[in-house]
């Protein structure tokens, strides 16, 4: 478990730690601040391209082998990013990082959930909260310290010792797992998903700044929707699909996947909106903003530790609903605070958001795969992570668009707090929507262990999602 947590923590933190260094990179490379956006876009597009294929690669070539190769590529790419001397080379190495990051999460998660029985997965989920939720929160803090105390390449160099240790530790202790019925490579599905998801990620990332009605965004976004739609139809008719959408026929997995995507959209939305609000409307520095946001990570850690006690008191379903209600209310409170408020009020509210939302994230992770058999775990974790990645991209795109539209209404006044307050209220709506979805599942379906499981059919992958009695 320690290998996966270290690797995933490194990859998840990389998504936010780089943002703090972008202004410095812009100055050193003598490029416009807008041009640095390609550093993140290349990473996200590459991740979206390789994420869907991760399940098949793990099943076909072995989860240990694929995981370690991805970890090695990510670590080497991090070193090369730090050595880059111009934007083109930095973008190229970030694309390599994204490709490796797209494989690390689902393959590592499949390894963990194959190892532990459903009744043991709450312990796994409590540990996974570190890379999934805490790493993005502390990224800006560590990034700010590294940029101010050393230089921007260190936001990449920091990955090297962790990647080196995780690789050799995994080489010695991880067990290999292959699926005999992995099937042949779905080249048609890969090409459709690559074009579709890459186009969607590009449109979602550039839409708020370029404008949703611009010809570029409309054409690329429309192309992405078209290819993704064709991809889904093709996958449903393919004998050995790259993404097994038939897994969504299980109501528990389907509902928990959507709830998880909404939670990720809310969590990353907070980490996106609050620093902008605190710096632009409250006049704080990037480091001050990161330190004020950090209590949310502390709340997430504490939630992961006390979740078993909370579950015994009110059950898994109660924990999920309590977490969603509490975190949504805290976001509403955060949106109502005036600019004269003490920083400690922000810290206490963000700590409470982490405490409440941490309960929900851990519980959802623990029960999402209850009905999935070990043979299908790689495909299930891949589909689950695709949902989360799209959920976060859509969520941030919506919040960014709201901020942009409201700032236009205020004649481009970035110091006005109102656009950010509205965005925080919309983020709370993501969580309230997730709360409504919890009522699709009966209370008994939340509990562990399960008596029903997906089993692999001898005839085809499309039939392996029938429920065994």
UniProtKB/TrEMBL annotation:
It is found in: Cell membrane. The lineage of its organism: Bacteria, Bacillati, Bacillota, Bacilli, Bacillales. One of its GO terms (cellular component) is plasma membrane. CDD domains: MFS_LmrB_MDR_like. It holds the Pfam family MFS_1. Keywords: Cell membrane, Membrane, Transmembrane, Transmembrane helix, Transport. NCBIfam families: efflux_EmrB. Belongs to the major facilitator superfamily. EmrB family. The chain crosses the membrane at residues 7-25, 31-54, 66-86, 92-113, 125-146, 152-173, 185-204, 216-236, 257-278, 290-307, 319-338, 344-369, 390-410, 422-443. Residues 1-446 form the Major facilitator superfamily (MFS) profile domain. It is a multi-pass membrane protein. This is Disulfide bond formation protein DsbA. GO terms for molecular function: transmembrane transporter activity.
